Amino acid sequence: DLVNLKVVTLDCSLNLVRIPDLSSAPNLETINLHLCSNLRDLPSSLQHLEKLTLLNVSYCENLRSLPSFYKATSLTELDLLGCSNLCSFPEIMGTMESLRHLVLSETALKELPSSISNLIGLEHLNMNDCKNLVCLPDSFYKLKYLGRFYLKGCSRLEIFPEIMDTMERLYQLDLSGTALKELPSSIANLIGLKYLSLNNCKNLGYLPDSFYKYKSLTRFCLKGCSRLEIFPEIMDTMERLYQLDLSGTALTELPSSIANLIGLKYLSLNNCKNLVCLPDSFYKLKSLKRFCLKGCSRLEIFPEIMDTMKRLYKLDLSGTALKELPSSIGNLIGLTCLSLNDCENLVCLPDKFYKLKSLERFYLKGCSRLEIFPEIMDTMERLYELNLSGTAFKELPSSIGNLVGLTYLSLNNCENLVCLPNSFYKLKSLKQFCLEGCLRLESFPEVMDTMKMLRDLNLSGTTLKELPSSIGNLIGLTHLDMNNCKNLVCLPDSFYKLKSLTRFCLRGCSRLEIFPEIMDTMERLYELDLSGTALKELPSSIGNLIGLTRLDMNNCKNLVCLPDSFCKLKSRERFLQSHIEVWFCEGRPYRSLVLDFSNCFKLGEKGVGNDIDADDNTSLEEVSSI
């Protein structure tokens, strides 16, 4: 007698094949058979369990059929997720008011019975990834309480049924990845619809003209509908639609009536390879916040902005075919992020660029035909990131100093850049300055005043011959990279003034023969890379680098000796074949200094100062102490 039994939990019982008759458990409320992967059927007595509220048979992969359950009048949730051999759903012979949630995702169902409409209380129906589903019942519209209907990934579903009457409560419909070619015009009867997704419906050819009637719609997703060539006219205002994703569609243009989407905040047309123009009415989208056109490789013209747009803060035009921007771009008074990366046809920027007072980030990376940066006629306090990498600039205007809030400036791989403005030092907020690969840059400007904020300066791969003595004014500099500066012949005597410097990289500076005297202690410099330089020796003042933990001199083939001051590195030292480890101990925990002298073929001739005189019978690896 199981009269008191209310809950049966047998989830993950992998050897369970069948469930016994349950008619002796009339008070059963919950049955959980999740992941009973060998369960083949359910007892017919289930339909007599009038108090049953939850039946979970998810991922019962061998379950092939269901008993009739319409008499289970208290059932509120039925979960059949992942029952991949379940090919049919039973007829519902009478109305069921209590069933709210029905999950049929990843089953093998080909169709639903027309009697599904008897689930008059159904609120949530999930049929995601039912790969065999080919049709829906015409009675679908009778599910008056249905709020969410998911059909994502039903890749054989070609037709959506006519909706013969209004459905007020359906607010979320996901048809992503189906084989639909069109939607019925009666879709407008979904008068409460808020979210409609048709993402990756590769066969979708057009949308119904009644689209504008979706007055409750807030989000409409059409990403990846690669055959959709025309967007319908919007014959009346749509106040609630705030997100429209048309990325990857075959649209060639948008209708001018797009301006009727007066509540639109997010519009994406990324990778619309056929898009050739935008409507002149674009500026009327007063609520627009983000507009994404990345990868619209045939878009050559951006429309004039005939009135101010206060709310648009992000505009992504990367990878478009734009040659220029309209001078009216200044009307985007709320713009904070503008991306024109990889606009390879872009040849000029508008003179009124400086009017974008809210701009914080400006990306022009890879604009390989852009030769001139406009004068900045007034201060721009908010612009903190400017990426000009890979442009064709020969120089920057002296008015660059008006970018008083700039913290990051990249000119990497600007191979035509020959000089920097003397006003560089006015960029008081600058933290990171990248010039790697500027092959024609031969001189660095004088730093006429202290720059406290600059932390990272990358000059690798430039043709600099020297640095100005005023480099010491970069009092906050922590990282200085000059790798592969093949023309560099000297460093300034003021080098030691860079008290904040922690890393200094000179790898591959093959003409650098002399390292400057270090006239004062430098406590913070912990890494010094001199690999591949032409140094013959290091100055005796190298001992002033009291914080140094790594010194790399690989391939310094002219190096013949190390200074006596190496002996200041007291305690014990171990010389290895490819590097020396020096251990410090001055009343503090041990710290190690790793020195790499690989391929320094002349070093053994004189050794370390006067303390080591390596003869023909003594190699560095044999020395165990000083």
Q: What is the topology?
A:
Layout: E1 7-9, E2 30-32, E3 54-56, E4 77-79, E5 101-103, E6 124-126, E7 148-150, E8 172-174, E9 195-197, E10 219-221, E11 243-245, E12 266-268, E13 290-292, E14 314-316, E15 337-339, E16 361-363, E17 385-387, E18 408-410, E19 432-434, E20 456-458, E21 479-481, E22 503-505, E23 527-529, E24 550-552, E25 572-575, E26 579-584, E27 591-596
Account of the protein in words:
Residues 569-592 and 606-626 have low confidence and may be disordered. The radius of gyration is 36 Å and the shape is elongated. Among the domains are: 1-157, Alpha-Beta Horseshoe (Leucine-rich repeat, LRR (right-handed beta-alpha superhelix)), CATH 3.80.10.10; 442-626, Alpha-Beta Horseshoe (Leucine-rich repeat, LRR (right-handed beta-alpha superhelix)). The protein has 626 residues and is mainly β. Helices cover 0% and strands 14% of the residues. The N and C termini lie far apart (91 Å). The chain contains no helices and 27 strands. It has a 27-stranded mixed β-sheet, with no helix packed on it. The relative contact order is 0.03.
